[in-house]
Design goal:
heterotrimer; A alpha/beta (335); B mainly alpha (295); C alpha/beta (344); A: 335 residues; alpha/beta; eight-stranded mixed beta sheet; four-stranded antiparallel beta sheet; C: 344 residues; five-stranded antiparallel beta sheet; 10 helices
């Protein structure tokens, strides 16, 4: 398969569908996702619980549990030599080669994935040795470079064991370990969720610095709306297993088009509200069940603009203006 | 369950909450079938099937057939009739022992677990020591020493039936009482009795049910075991006695057709045990609504 | 406006360790009061002592020192219950609602069995059909509608938000004077968090009770308290308190200022978006004085004066606004670092 991707595209996902088999039935976790991750930019995939965001990542990274079935779709990843490989079709051995060196993944709660019986230094040594670096000077240099990137003092951190570090510091160690191999695509799942405000701010700065230094492609999975607007270049909003809106971050926050996006943004309270005299408004209804999703457009039960067609058919994705995609019948009339 | 809904009668609720989960679980059906057969066998069986006492040497070790479902024993008697008549003793003695043991173990466990502190630690030391004693050899020796009556055997078996459950219940109650919803109940002023029996209790019942099943099965095995080894000769229809005669007196394992009969009888024992355990497992779905598949 | 709950200089210390006992202070000399018809907030990161304070106010945890007062009756003094009868017969009026809706409900009890025992205990005279009506009313009050649909559902049938509503219904079934809602929105979807806070506001208004809303999220704490009091906690110490809107606009304590300044805010601006950490001195070689002030190790203004910091001592920053910082009123004028970036 040598399909070629546009020079601005790093990862293109087309009509991806995945389901889990559970005792109550099938959970349609990824339900026709169409998404383009641009190269050299930070993209956020925003979704709440039941949106399927972690499932989506697990699907194209091929780290699904045993009861998962990929039904259809492609995930085309552009490699440094220009060719594209379909991750969905890729063999286990190819995926193993890609993971770590080409695609880095920092799952939720990654701070707990550190080996409790190894010091931080040993963690670095293990990773580097496994991937070919052996000379002592080279190792030391790389390790120091990475730790400074994540603002950790090697003197303080290297000889310690994971349990001696705070959650935020462990998080940064994991990021440094992932960046050791300089992957072209880095996926982070909820990197800020367990952190206090100060650690979050430092982390955002670190991520920004990493991206601008290495010019890699970052994908941030999160439900934290404010950090999305600060850190990312592009946003894709996931609802009930499908992308409902994807566009430039600034555009989405300035003028969100999909009703869910606009209601979601308005539902988040912030200290800024006091300064802007703004009152947050909740999104009505309840998050959707992926076991028995609503028919037609999955957002229709909660949408104030829903009409007959919304209940019957799933809306197609339409490019409302350049680079801004929406999946909503309000914008797909006549299609 | 209260009948708060005018549309559903009390009976229907009992059906939905208790009967249906058991029926829908494959194990439940099998388990119930076996238990029902056991009860039937022990209660009506001896009335319906005459005891075959006639000695028919020509029928010695006859193989299983429609007429003799378990074959014949060393005297040519129909083994099935002997088994049916012996079932009363073989089920009743362990059942009584288990019942008393579970009641004692549950009570002690609930109290010690809920009170916690010194009471629980004392209980744990006692039960832990008790549990390290190998039960069967001790039962064996005591059975030899004690009067050979059903009552003394029951008490003997009870001795080893209660510690396991007491310890498990105490541990479980101790952990459950720390749950947030128990704290909420305490906060809301709901009484200790209510909390122990109505909030914590239902979570213990699966333990009790499964424990009852495994203890019953263990007691049954112990009983048959001590009779098999000749230490407590009770009723001659006692399965242990039958096996004792078949294996030791008549050296049945050296003969092919005799071995078939012996093995068949042992398989029957295994089958009964499985049935009891399966039923207990299906009860888990009754007590833990989360496990129910059909909702 | 009656004073419903008050704590005066309460502290809670735990001792940990087998041989060498370490003392861990969860709460240090906190004082707080709430009146009927008020919804106040306590905001702090995890480990700030806010949960312990919430449990202290509802009598679930005994303080190591200090007083607990319920409706002007002394309940606890110096770590001991002084009015046991009053405490036992009234504790159901001071209800604590847990953060985790998954562990706060008995999984083997459906909605009816969750609410019925509480109703039966405190409204013994009601017959079954009246109890049923009461349950329906409670479910409607918390927004679990259609009520008769929910009545036989088990917790695993309900979403996180629904479970929290059920937990609130259970609290309301006891006819409380006071509810502590401890992080009840943290495990709930962002899009519906506000609706739970709105529910709390409705409950306060309709029943004229008091609610303490605990959270680590500053934005929602301010939204909840509005012009009522908000208490900012750090390492067991209340560092600032006053009307929430006032604190949001003019925070006095350096910690509060840092919290506000470092929040991520939606920026409709394209310029360099990622701001540096503001108001927190991290990699500093400045010698830190020996002091009980919880922010000393990170404070950009700390100096030798701070060693005279006293627990429970506050300086006035406004008519009803107080800060624990000794430099209150002497700090430079402050603006949140994101103020420039807000356009429009």
């Amino acid at each position: 398969m040598s399909e070629k991707l546009d020079k601005n595209q790093k990862l293109v996902i087309r009509d991806l569908r995945m389901e889990y088999l559970v005792r109550e039935g099938t959970v349609k976790a990824v339900n026709g996702v169409n998404l383009t991750i641009p190269e050299g930019r930070i993209t956020a995939i925003v979704g709440e619980s039941g949106s399927g965001k972690t499932s989506l990542v697990e699907t194209f990274l091929k780290i699904l549990p045993k009861n998962a079935r990929i039904r259809s779709g492609k995930a085309l990843l552009k490699l440094s030599n220009g060719t594209a490989v379909d991750l969905i079709e890729a063999s286990d051995s190819l995926m193993r080669k890609l993971r770590g060196r080409v695609v880095g993944y920092i799952p939720q709660g990654a701070q707990n994935s550190l080996n409790p019986v190894l010091t931080i230094e040993q963690h670095f040594l293990e990773t580097l040795r496994e991937h070919g670096t052996h000379s002592k000077e080279a190792i030391e240099e790389r390790v120091r470079a990475m730790l400074s990137l994540v603002r950790l003092d090697p003197e303080v951190v290297l000889k310690k064991y994971p349990h001696e570090l705070s959650g935020g510091m462990k998080q940064r160690v994991v990021i440094a370990l992932t960046m050791l191999l300089q992957p072209e695509l880095v996926v982070l799942d909820e990197p800020t969720s367990a952190l206090d405000i100060f650690s979050q701010r430092v982390l955002l700065n670190i991520l920004y610095k990493i991206q601008s230094t290495y010019k890699n492609t970052m994908v941030l999975i999160t439900h934290d709306i404010p950090i999305v607007s600060e850190l990312t270049d592009r946003v894709a909003v996931l609802y009930a297993g499908a992308i409902v809106e994807s566009a430039d971050t600034y555009e989405v926050f300035k003028e969100p088009i999909h009703p869910y996006t606009s209601m979601l943004i308005s539902a988040i309270p912030s200290v800024v509200d006091v300064y802007l005299k703004r009152v947050p408004k909740p999104v009505p209804g309840e998050p959707p069940s992926l076991l028995n999703p609503p028919p037609g457009c999955r957002f229709h039960p909660r949408c104030p603009h829903a009409f007959e067609k919304c209940r019957l058919k799933e809306p197609p994705t339409v490019e409302v203006h350049s680079g801004h995609f929406v999946s909503c019948w309000l914008y797909a009339e006549g299609v | 369950m209260t009948s708060y809904r005018s549309s559903k009668s009390r009976l229907k609720l009992i059906y939905l909450d208790f009967v249906r989960p058991v029926i829908l679980s494959g194990r439940g059906v099998l388990g119930i079938a076996i238990i029902v057969s056991m009860i039937f066998m022990a209660t009506l069986g001896p009335e319906l099937i005459p005891l075959d006492t006639g000695v028919k040497p020509q029928m010695k070790w006859c193989q299983p057939s429609l007429e003799h479902p378990l074959g014949c024993d060393y005297l040519g008697r129909d083994l099935f009739s002997l088994v049916v008549h012996g079932s009363r003793e073989v089920f009743l003695i362990p059942f009584c022992a288990t019942l008393i043991g579970v009641v004692v173990g549950l009570s002690i466990g609930l109290l010690a677990g809920y009170i916690g502190g010194l009471a629980r630690r004392a209980l744990t030391s006692v039960t832990d020591t008790w549990l390290t004693i190998p039960s069967f050899p001790v039962i064996f020796i005591l059975a030899y020493a004690l009067p050979k009556s059903p009552v003394s055997i029951i008490l003997l078996l009870t001795l080893f039936s209660w510690p396991g459950l007491a310890r498990a219940v105490a541990a479980e109650v101790s952990s459950l009482k720390r749950r947030d919803y128990i704290e909420a109940c305490v906060n809301l002023g709901l009484g200790r009795g209510y909390i122990l029996f109505r909030e914590i209790g239902p979570h213990i019942l699966p333990f009790v049910a499964i424990n009852f099943a495994s203890v019953f099965v263990a007691n049954m095995t112990s009983l048959i075991g001590i009779v098999l080894l000749g230490v407590a000769p009770l009723n001659p229809t006692n399965w242990g006695y039958l096996l004792n005669q078949m294996i030791f007196t008549y050296k049945g394992l050296l003969l092919a057709n005799a071995s078939v009969v012996i093995v068949l009888m042992i398989l029957m024992l295994v089958f009964i045990k499985l049935g009891v355990v399966f039923f207990a497992q299906s009860l888990e779905e009754v007590f833990n609504p989360r496990l129910r598949r059909y909702e | 406006m009656k004073r419903v709950v008050a704590v005066e200089k309460v502290s809670k210390t735990y001792s940990r360790g087998l041989f060498k006992k370490r003392l861990i202070s969860a709460v240090q000399s906190a004082s707080l009061e709430v009146s009927s018809g008020e919804l106040i907030s306590i905001v702090g990161e995890s480990g700030s002592g806010k949960t312990t304070l919430g449990k202290l106010m509802t009598g679930l945890v005994l303080p190591s020192s200090g007083r607990l007062i319920w409706r002007d009756v002394d309940v606890i003094k110096n770590g001991r219950i002084v009015n046991r009868e009053f405490y036992s017969s009234n504790r159901h009026r001071y209800v604590y609602v847990h953060q985790d809706p998954y562990s706060a409900l008995n999984p083997s009890k459906n909605v009816w069995d969750t609410l019925n025992p509480v109703i039966s205990k405190y409204k013994k005279h009601l017959g079954t059909s009246d109890k049923y009506k009461t349950v329906i009313e409670l479910l409607e009050e918390v927004g679990l509608v259609p009520a008769d649909y929910f009545i036989d559902k088990y917790p695993h049938h309900l979403s996180g938000g629904m479970r929290q509503r059920l937990a609130l219904a259970r609290a309301l079934a006891a006819d409380p004077h006071f509810i502590v809602a401890d992080e009840i929105v943290s495990m709930v979807d962002p899009s519906i968090r506000i609706s739970l806070v709105n529910l709390l506001k409705d409950i306060v208004k309709a029943r004229n009770i008091s609610v303490v809303f605990i959270s680590h999220d500053l934005g929602i704490s301010i939204y909840a308290a509005e012009n009522n009091f908000m208490y900012v906690m750090l390492n067991g110490v209340v560092v600032e308190y006053g009307p929430a809107y006032e604190i949001a606009y003019s925070p006095e304590h350096p910690y509060t200022r840092a919290l506000i300044s470092n929040t991520s805010v939606p920026l409709p601006s394209r310029e360099k978006r990622v701001r540096e950490l503001d108001g927190v001195a991290v990699e500093d070689s400045k010698p830190r004085p020996n002091t009980l002030c919880p922010f000393a190790s990170l404070c950009p203004f700390v100096d030798s004066e701070c060693s005279s910091f006293e627990l429970g001592f506050y300086l006035k920053a406004g008519a009803k606004h107080f800060s624990a910082c000794l430099k209150t009123g002497k700090l430079p004028k402050w603006k949140p670092s994101w103020l420039q970036t807000l356009s429009g």
